[in-house]
Amino acid sequence: MTDNPTIQFTFAVDDPELDDDRRLKIASKLLPELRNSDEVEKVDRTEDFNPEAGSKPGFATLVGVLTAEVSIKNIKGFLSFLSDRLGDKPIELTVKVGDKEVSIKAKSRQELLESEKIAQNLLAAMGGDNGHTQNG
Question: pTM of the full predicted structure?
């Protein structure tokens, strides 16, 4: 077990007017930026654990969906990074800590940044905040 636990964020632009091709372009542009970001431990396309019949196993990914692992101290920076790039688009975000998971639909930059509180609350509920709560 690492001394620096991570929180898993799975996210995608949640705009019904975007087709799969546009979602893929957004994710493809964001992926290298996130990989080069200091806030992100690991990021990849999200695997589809329920692929359609006839799909090749192990090769199915969800179109336009990325999963990032972020250390606790970098949550705010990561969400700021996302809001800078996707702040004007609705985003569906799943925050996962251990076996606890919360889905969030953010329609604005402010709602996306408020996801930090939800992640911190999940950590606290699991007893994983190690007494390092931050205010402000």
Answer: 0.80
Most confident of the following: 18-22, 55-59, 85-89, 109-113 = 18-22
Query: 61: closest CA among 24, 106, 25?
Result: 24
How far is the C-alpha of 11 from the C-alpha of 67, rounded, in Å? Answer: 6
Strands (E), 1-136: 6-13, 40-47, 61-71, 91-97, 100-106
What whole-number distance in Å separates Cα of residue 56 and Cα of residue 59?
Answer: 6
- Yes or no: say if 80 and 89 are a contact pair by the CB < 8 Å rule: no
**Identity at 39, one-letter amino acid code:** E
Q: What size, in residues, is the chain? A: 136
Residue type, 118: I
Per DSSP, the residues of 72-110 read GGGHHHHHHHHHHHHTTS-EEEEEEETTEEEEEEE-SHH
Residue 85: CB partners within 8 Å, gap ≥ 6? 30, 33
